[in-house]
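Researcher: Structure for this, please.
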Amino acid sequence: MRLSSAFRLIVVLGLLAAVLAGCSRDPNVRKQKYFKSGQSYFEKGQYREAAIQFSNAVRVDPNYGDAHHQLAQTYLRLQQWLPAYQELSRTLELQPGNDAARIDLANLLVAGHDLQHAQEHIDLLLPKLPNDPRVHLAAANLLAAQNNVPAAIQEMQKAITLAPNRSDSYLSMAVLQMRANQFDLAEANLKKAIDLDPKALNAQLALGGFYQSRNRLAAAEQVFRHAMQVDPKSPDPRAALARLLMAQGKRAETEDLLKQAKQELADNPAGYRMLGDFYFAAGDLDKATAEYSSLFQEHPKDLQVKKNYIQLLILKGRLDEAAKLNNEVLASNANDTDCLIYRGQIQIRQGKARDAIPTLQTAIKNDPDNGVAHYHLGVAFDQQSDLARAESEWHEAVRLRPDLIDAQRALAAAAFRRGDMSSVEQIATQIISLQPASPEGYALRSASFINRKRFANAEQDANKAVEIAANSPIGYIRLGDLHLAQKEYAGAEKAYRQALDRDPSSPDALAGLMNTCIAGKQIDKALAAANEQIVKVPNSSVFYDLLGTALFNNKKDLNGAEAALKKSAELDKKNSDALLKLGQVQAAKGSIDEAIATYQNSLRDNPQEVSFYILMGELYESKRDWGKAKEMYKKALDLRPENPLASNNLAYVMLQAGENVDMAMSLAQIARRGMPESPNAADTLGWVYYQKAMYDSAIGLFQEAVRLNSKANRPPDATFHYHLGLAYQKTGQTALARKELESVLQINPKFGDAGDVKKVLAELR
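Model: Predicted structure, token format:
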């Protein structure tokens, strides 16, 4: 029986399908198919797609060494260092003789500063492949990481001699020569690298960066613009050009460049994010937030856009919006380190530092080397008045991320609080090395010199800050500080006014100008300066704060001070400094209840402001309302458990109320540790010892209180002498007791315990 032609075709197709199905089930065929597909993507520069295909090949055959190596190469192109390391390590397990993989792994270990293991691989490679330029290149990288630049240059020369046409060798040699200050040779080798490979983008960018570092700015710009033509789809040349333009203060030109980049690189995340990142780096949070809001609408699946937008919302104080978006990310990945850090920041800004600490500790547990997490954890500890742990976290942040300027600033501020100007100088020098084109480091170092009366050094750095940023007020402010410290009031006034010309809203410049006038006994001139700036910047809460402070402290104009401070608080309900002073002015006017009401109302907008509770406690103390005072101090300690001032005051109130002396002692010891230079802390602990009949110890602390009070150039305090007199009485030192108690009535005839003083004096007579 003969088959019809149609039937024969069906049979043939069926057999072919069966054969193909059999092939598709063969693991060797499948893995090869994935591998070849991955190679095709890799050659086209489509590395994410290549990684998927190589991963599929490895999934089919976990022992497929070539696929592991190619996957490692792909991860290196994607700058995903940890998976690249894992894949290279697996490659060498499967293929110990894969020298190319060993070279890649050695270079990766050098980049990760694991120099010991890198050395082990180099030691295996050099005797095995003495004529392989890649090995000498890796050896040179290792020697450079070990700071042996001359030996590194020798190794790099061997690599060039063995392969004189490799562009990357000349580029690496140029980098080493720059470290050795061989700038002419470095420039020649950068140009050689470009001649050998005109499309080598890294060499183009390195040459532009070299010219910028040598202040050959026109040449740098020309190179960066040429690099944009070499690779129109890469964001890197545009980013380099933007940094160059910004360093020259060409903000408008930079903005235009990045707007164009956003249009031309609309399909490249790094390209369309650059404009928003520029606004952020320039400190224009309004524009940055608006730009990222737009990007978030256009690219809702770009996780980095979402994260950057969350960070900006936090910085703008839009915490509810930030928390909502952040929680969305954490709902899908509870261990997302970035979003845990954002949650910690939100909690800190909400005044919930106690909650932020475990949040940030979880982030650090997931990523121990995250410098940003350590920095914010330090901020949380600082808000809890745990300064030792705060500084420890900031030091760790700087160790992990020396370029983390916020952590450097925090350490500088902590050093200022301690009066450790040598540390401030060191930190400032580090900031200068990180940001040589910024005036900040020079201004900070100048401040450290001013505090140590090293005026010549201070002037040099202040002038450098002016030279770098002539349109910034910071250098002029530091020059004003320098002249003021030397009582050169005319020079100080001129410098501060120059600062205000550049930034009429600068609080530091106005404060410096007013302090100069006050130091020169020209109070009215200081007030006029404040009013002049208020006309120029009428909505500045800080300016009204400065005016009110001067009226209160220097003019003794309580009504004028109250009006100015009320205006300051009206403009900014979170200006706690103005609100605190407003209450003090009201108390000085004898309106104790009004001052208490001011602080109670202020807590609505500033619920985490400990100072309001402490000052209310002191006001209640003045009314001898020990119960209310104790309540306020306890609320302060609920917010800041180690706050030394609240601890001191609560201890004293407990003693006055005849409560638990041992608990009062614990609080007084916390206060003494936290405020070693405070006469009040010494007096309180001494009063504890007095209550426990430890009179000799009490006398030592009362004497210390008197000494510290005198050291601070404060008027004699009747309470300290009263306590000291009582302690002398208890130890039988009658003459000393009489002397101290008589001085109490001389210091303050209306002393609150004057009746007791007179009674004891009568007994002593």
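Researcher: Any notable elements?
Model: Confidence is low (pLDDT under 50) at residues 1-24. Residues 5-24 form the longest helix (20 residues).
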